[in-house]
Amino acid sequence: MKPWIVILLSLSLSYAFAQAPASYSNAQENIVPNGSFEDFSSFPLGWFYKGKDYSRLMKYWSSPTHASPDVYNPKVRIPIYWTQKGFGIERPRSGKSMSGITVYGCKEGKPHCREYLQIQLMEPLVVGQRYHAEFYTTALSDSKLVNNIGMFFTTEPRDETTDKLLPATPQVYSKEVIRSKGGVWQKVSGQFTAKDTSEYLIIGNFFPDSLTTAEGKTKAYKYGYYYIDDVRVKKIEPILNEPVKSNDLCCIEYTVGKSITLKNIFFETDKSELLPQSYKELDKLHLVLLDHPKMIIEIQGHTDNQGAYKYNIRLSRDRAQAVVDYLKNKGIGKERLYYKGFGDTRPVAENETSIGRQLNRRVEFLIIKK
Hints:
By secondary structure, the chain is of the alpha+beta class. The chain has 5 helices and 16 strands.
């Protein structure tokens, strides 16, 4: 089984996320998308046994290892064997959903003795910026009560093939045993200063059992399992201004006929749904259109050469339309927005390398009228 935990203590941390100018950022915004686990990528049906099961179901969250965290929701069917052990009896702190992970029990030989939750933040951390991070947690009633549950910020996502301990040094972790259980939710929070441009967060216990304190004389369980809900990471005033790059949308000269590539636009794999990490760049484009009220643009989608021609044309068109829909929802008139998909017909790099294919998978906008 898999408990799931996120922990932040009152520790001073350092990481860094690439930050946007203050005009694009709000100190009150949570940069953890789907922090309460309410959104799903597919219809929840049953229990999970592999990390890819959790990753397929929970929107934006994933398992960085082969072990599978658990999702709790009224529509998720938990096998009777596990409900009799108390799994899923507790209610989420907010909404209808929560996650759970195993954080202790390797010495007892438990399969999936370590489970982790991974997510890409809505924007990279800003070097030197202070952040507030928090989550709420409660242990399974008969779980071992443990410490060391923490948060690891990293610049690259993890994708391990094992279900064992994930070697990493968490920037924040709970030194004290977390004793809340039975549906009594405990808030764990802390502040840290970003030191690098990490944009991924992994939650779990990164310490071996030998270095983890475990309490509780339980009859049934020799492992630790915790529920997690309401994960938040926010900037603390004052908001630092991010150094503006020369190719930032705010600094470009706009002329009719010019085609401009949008940076950091992300979609679900093989889908046209925009990921939250795209909003920062699209909000910049929204401001550009507000500053140039007569500007008319065409959003153009492009793919690499992987996949059939017709499929790539459709996918690139649908992704371009998703960008247009985002701008419409922000108040830009539809008469100012066109879109078109070119598939793999206009590569800007060789498709023989992964880097080249990544460059070819892009969204651009063409200035039709200024």
